[in-house]
Amino acid sequence: MVGSYKGNCQGELIYQPLGETQFGDKNAYHALLGCSSLPNLHQAEHASSMSQLQGEMGYFAVVSLDNDLMMLHKSMRGGAFSNDNAPLTEDNYLAFIEHLQPNILSSNHE
Question: 50: domain range?
Fold first, then answer.
């Protein structure tokens, strides 16, 4: 993921490893990743949207299941920003992901 952001980022790349964590009883590793100024690659078919640079910041977690890995990701897009005023930080990411509860790991994956 860092390589993908790095290849498309036209501003500051922000990567903040948060280390090991738990989702329910599952081990995970999580981090914050973003770019202060990024083209809108999600709507690449529209040339006008490609020229508009936006900041994108996201939370990523890789969860270890029995025989698989699952990635959880939530991101936000908005105005360009700098590393000094990133909208998602170690201080506020928990509120951003509060809806990612351990029950998302039940039923289909156990």
Answer: 2-105
Statement: residue 109 has pLDDT above 50 = no
- Total structural domains within the chain: 1
- With 0-12 / 13-18 / 19 or more C-beta atoms within 10 angstroms meaning exposed / middle / buried, residue 15 is middle
- Examine residue 31 and state whether it is found in any structural domain, yes or no: yes
Q: What is the pTM of this model?
A: 0.79
Characterize 37-49 residue by residue with b for buried, 16 or more Cβ atoms within 10 angstroms of its Cβ, and e for exposed. Answer: bbbbeeeeeeeee
Is residue 19 in some structural domain? yes
